TrEMBL record:
Residues passing through the membrane, by range: 12-36, 48-69
SMART domains listed in its UniProt record: PlsC (SM00563)
Organism of this sequence: Cystoisospora suis
Cellular-component GO terms for this entry: endoplasmic reticulum
Protein name: Acyltransferase domain-containing protein
UniProt keyword Plastid, yes or no: no
Gene Ontology biological-process annotations: phosphatidic acid biosynthetic process
Gene Ontology molecular functions: 1-acylglycerol-3-phosphate O-acyltransferase activity
Keyword field: Acyltransferase, Membrane, Transferase, Transmembrane, Transmembrane helix
Record has Transmembrane as a keyword: yes
Phospholipid/glycerol acyltransferase domain ranges (all copies): 98-215
InterPro entries reported for this sequence: Plipid/glycerol_acylTrfase
C-alpha cells in the first residue's frame, strides 16, 4: 500500500480530474441540448444518442487521465468470437437490444463501465436522487439516464407507485431504438465488496421482450 501522503495526493488528483471533466461534460451537453431541442419531437432518439455520447466521451477521457485505472478485456463478448480477447476492441461490437449487467463493488464502476461500453450507445439505469447532485447528477440526467424513483420506506429503497412500470416502459423505448441498457442488478453498491442478492426486474424484462440479450460484465 502506498504511503499516506501519496494516497492523499492521488485522491486529490482523482477528484480534480473528475470534477473538471464533469463540468466540461455538463457544459457541452447543455449546449447540445439547446441546439437539438427544436428537433427533439421528430428525432428524440438522435438527441438522446448525441447527449449520451457526449457524456461517455468525457468520462472516457477522464478515465485515461487516471493512470492507476486501466481496462483489460479477458474474454470477447458473444457475437464477437472472431476477435481474441487480447485484440478485442469495443468498436468492433455493438450490443443492440442488450441489457449489460455488472456488479457494483465501488464508486469507480460507472467510469470503468463507460470505458467498456464506449462507443456503444448505452444508457444507465440509476436512482432518481442521483440526478439532483449538482453538475454530476445533471450530466446523468441530460445524458438520458433512466431514473428510478424511490420512497423513504424500506430504508429508502421502496419504489414509488408506478415507478417500475415507467422504468420498464422507458427501458423498452431504449431497446426499440436499438440501444443498450447498463444496470446494476444488485440495486445498490456493495459496501463490503461481497456480491449482494440480485433484483430480478431486468432478468424478467429480457425474458418477456423478444430479441433482448443479457451481457454480464
Amino acid at each position: 500500500m502506498a504511503p499516506v501522503p501519496i494516497r492523499i495526493l492521488l485522491t486529490v488528483y482523482f477528484y480534480c480530474v473528475v470534477s473538471i471533466f464533469f463540468c466540461l461534460a455538463f457544459l457541452t451537453e447543455l449546449i447540445a441540448y439547446v441546439l437539438l431541442s427544436p428537433f427533439s419531437f421528430r428525432h428524440k432518439g438522435v438527441k438522446a444518442r448525441v447527449l449520451s455520447s457526449i457524456f461517455q466521451t468525457y468520462m472516457l477521457a477522464a478515465l485515461y487521465c487516471l493512470p492507476f485505472w486501466r481496462v483489460k478485456f479477458l474474454n470477447s463478448p458473444p457475437l464477437a468470437s472472431s476477435s481474441s480477447s487480447s485484440s478485442f476492441s469495443p468498436s468492433a461490437y455493438n450490443p443492440k437490444r442488450t441489457v449489460i449487467m455488472a456488479n457494483h463493488a465501488s464508486g469507480a464502476d460507472p467510469w470503468l463501465l463507460t470505458a467498456v461500453v464506449y462507443p456503444w450507445p448505452a444508457f444507465f439505469v440509476i436512482k432518481d436522487s442521483l440526478c439532483r447532485v449538482p453538475i454530476a447528477g445533471w450530466c446523468l440526467a441530460l445524458a438520458g439516464s433512466i431514473r428510478v424513483k424511490f420512497t423513504k420506506e424500506k430504508g429508502g429503497w421502496a419504489t414509488a407507485p408506478g415507478a417500475v412500470k415507467l422504468l420498464m416502459q422507458e427501458s423498452n423505448e431504449v431497446m426499440d431504438r436499438g440501444h443498450a441498457l447498463v444496470v446494476f442488478p444488485e440495486g445498490t453498491r456493495s459496501v463490503t465488496g461481497r456480491l449482494q442478492p440480485f433484483k430480478d426486474g431486468f432478468f424478467r424484462f429480457a425474458v418477456e421482450h423478444e430479441g433482448i440479450s443479457i451481457l454480464p460484465v
